[in-house]
Amino acid sequence: MSAIQDVYRTTTSGNSATRRWIIRGSLAIAVFIAIRWGIWNAVFMSSSPDVCRAANGACWAVITSQWKLVLFGTYPFAAIWRPFAATVVLLAAFAVPLVRPSLRVLASNWAGGLVTAIALLDGRPFGLPVVETHDWGGIPLTLLLSEGTILLAFPLGLAVALARNSGSVVLRSLALVAVECIRGVPLVSLLFFATLVMPLFLSGLSNLDKLSAAAGAIVLFNAAYVSEIIRGGLSTVPRGQFEAAESLGVRWITMQRLIVLPQALKVCAPSLVNEAVGIVKDTSLVAVIGLLDLMNASKLTLIDVRWERYFVEVYLVIGLAYFLMCSAVASLGRRLSARLDTAAPLQNDSASIMLSAAAAGGQA
Hints:
The chain is an all-alpha fold. The protein has helices at residues 2-40, 49-54, 61-64, 67-72, 81-99, 103-122, 138-164, 169-183, 187-201, 210-234, 239-247, 252-282, 294-299, 311-363, and one strand spanning 292-293. 76% of the residues lie in helices and 1% in strands.
């Protein structure tokens, strides 16, 4: 029996070593082919696809020759500095919370960055020529929708989740109906409804531009999902803590801020980060109503039949851009979660002191 086991171990070990070498060799060959195609034999700068046809590598010129269309969509070229400045402002507003991870810093910087970027793109607040929202596109539009949705959907979802857990039957019923109605339909349907159907029934919204309507639909859609994530976190807080706080006369707002929410948000933080990453990717759906975000503005480069054969390069660039944006959002979420873990013991100590003081006051 021992001899059979020794033979089995020797054979298994040999097969594992062979598989490892095969995998390593395959990866090395794949990396070599990718570097040769994407760098060594690639064409990076050219105004004509003829140069790419003569080469045996990637044609990154399909992006570099039409950079304005890729980055900023159909925004007027004479005012191209405005979407460039708006992009810088939005990226700076995103970078500051990465250095100083705090919800207060994030909210203030993102709010200021969004207002400034919208003012630059529109032009009227600075006395510049007006550019309508249907000409906004590219990376500024993607950043606007992503940061604006995250900034608005999370507090709105928190409010709905607290309403679902409140003692008021009316609030619970309204929150339940709103969440289920919004979650029960695809986001694409909400976009069509907000931009095409609502203006037909509500005369006051007949002049509402597509971007504002689409942004509202995306915010409401994601707020419904955020509310359910937070409600799941609230359900993990023991019911006895609610009852103890109520019996000591602790105000509802104080109880939520010091006792309930720190525990609930700590539990559901990974799911909230995942939802934020999904929001960045959902912004590409605005193409169905004619808005050109980063993905759809980049695809415009393939309309020219001379460049359409180089669609692989375009989609690789789009994929890399979304990978970087989603990775940055995930990194920011992890930093905020780590800060929440660090602050939770202090908040629990404060809650204990508050409950002790309330109990002492009740005994007196």
